[in-house]
Amino acid sequence: MRILNFYNLLCCHLIVRPYLIGLSILFTFLLSIYHPVFAVDGLGKGEVEAYVTTNTRSHELKRVTFKANSLSSRTTIHLDRNTRFQEMDGFGAAVTGSTCYNLLKMDKKSRTQFLRETFDPVAGYGHSYIRIAIGCSDFSLSEYTCCDAEGIENFALQEEELQYVIPVLKEILAINPTIKILGSPWTSPQWMKVDNLTDLNPFHSWTSGHLNPKYYQDYAIYFVRWIEAFQQEGIDIFAITPQNEPLNRRNSASLFMGWLEQRDFIKSALGPQLKKTGLRTKIFAFDHNYNYDNMADQQGYPLHIYEDDAAAQYITGAAYHNYGGNRQELLRVHDRRPDKQLLFTETSIGTWNHGRDFDKRLIEDMEEVGLGTVNNWCAGVMVWNLMLDSDRGPWREGGCKTCYGAVDIDRKDYKTITKNSHYYVISHLSVVVKPGAVRIGSTGMGDEELVYTGFENKDGSIALVLLNKSKEARTISVVDKATRFSYTVPAKSVVSYLWKG
C-alpha cells in the first residue's frame, strides 16, 4: 500500500512539477515488472481486473483491465450478495523444512522477489495461509520432535525451526504481517508412545504407535510451549491440528490417533491447557482424508468428537486432505454441523498423478482443490510443499520421493523456478479473494464446462473465480447488482475477476 500511496502522491505532483514526468514513467515501468498485481483501489469506475492462466502457459496469471461493457452472451452468471455462505480465512501452502532449505539456498534478492510476488497482499498474489510442522514432517531435514529427551522440561525448538523455518517465516511476515499459520505434528516424542492402548508397552519408533494416555497433559503442554516459543520469535500461531493424518500408520513420522483418542486428548488436556494459558489458538480436528482411510469405525471422525460437548467446545472445526474419497464428504459434515468450520489442509502433485502435465493438472486441480473445496464450505485451502527442488527434495528416507512442490527450483542454480498447477490454483484465489471475504450466491445457465464461485471482500469489492474446462473459448456475461460485463474466456483456462462493488 505504501508503494501505491507514493505513486498517487507522485502523480498529484505532476501538475505542478513537470520535471517529475520522466521519473513517474520510470516508476510505473519498474512497478509493472517487479509487482505483477495491484489493489482494487487502483481500479476506476466501471473497470474490471482479470487474471488469466491457460493450460498452454500462453498466459500465466496475466493481468488485464477492461471497462464493464454490454452483455453479449447467453451464458450468464448472476451474483447475489444477499445469499451468503462461509467467511474465508485464506489460501496458501505448506512451508516445510525442505521448502525453507530451498528458499535459503537462493540468493537474498531472488528469494525476496519470489516471496514478495507470492505473499504481498497488495503488490503480489497475496497468499494468506501457511501450514507448518510441529517438529518434523516427511519433508524435514531430519527426524526429530521438540522434546526428544524424556521429560517435558526438556522442550526446546530445534535446528530446523531455528535455522530454517523461523527465519523464512520472519521474511514472509515482513511482507504480509497478517498471514495465518497452522501447525500440525507428524508424531509425538517417542517416549510418549505405546504400541497399543491395552498393553501400553513403550514404542520407540518414529512411525506409528499411540499416544500414551499417561502423557496427555505433558503432550498438551508440549503444544503450549511450541506456540509460546514461536510467539517469543514474533510469530503468532493461528491454529493447530492435534495430529497430521491420524489414521496413517505408515508415514515416516506418524502417530495413530483414532477419534476416541483425539476426543479424550482434546477435552481432557489440549483444550484446557490452551484455555488455562490464555492462548487463543484454534483447534481443528481430524486433518486427514475424505474417506477416513476406509476404516469402518472411523467414518465421520470429527462428527463423533462433536457429539461430546466437553470436547466440541474447544474445536473450531475439522480439516481434510484429498488422498482418498470424495469432496462431497465436506458437504455432508457441514450439513451435520454447520456451526463448525471446515479447512482443506493438504494435497500434493507428483509422479503418480502426472504432476508435471500442466494441461491436465491446472484444470483438475482448480476444479477439485480450488473451487471444489470452497464450494463445499471450506474457509481455507492449503496445498503441500510451497517449494521443492528439481529432484523433488530434499526428502528423508520413508518420506515422499515422488512429490512436486507448488513450485520447483533448479538445484543447478537455486534461482530458476518452475511454477506448477498448485501455485496457480492458490494464486488465482488469493489474488482476488482476501481474508474476511464471504462466498456469495453465484448461479448460471447454459454451459456445464464452466465451474465458478463468487465472493464479496470486506472492502465491498466483488470477486469471481472461474474455470473453463472446455477445449473451446467461452464468452460469458456476468451480472452483479452494480456491474455487468462480458468476457471471452480462453479454452481450458482459469480467470479471476475483481471489481469495485
UniProtKB/TrEMBL annotation:
Ranges for domain Glycosyl hydrolase family 30 beta sandwich: 436-497
Domain of life (superkingdom): Bacteria
Gene Ontology cellular component list: membrane
GO biological process assignments: glucosylceramide catabolic process
Transmembrane segments: 7-34
Glycosyl hydrolase family 30 TIM-barrel domain sequence ranges: 89-431
Alphabetic keyword roster: Glycosidase, Hydrolase, Membrane, Signal, Transmembrane, Transmembrane helix
InterPro entries: GH, GH30_C, Glyco_hydro_30, Glyco_hydro_30_TIM-barrel, Glyco_hydro_b
GO molecular function: glucosylceramidase activity
Family statement: Belongs to the glycosyl hydrolase 30 family.
Protein name according to UniProt: Glucosylceramidase
Lineage, highest ranks first: Bacteria, Pseudomonadati, Bacteroidota, Sphingobacteriia, Sphingobacteriales
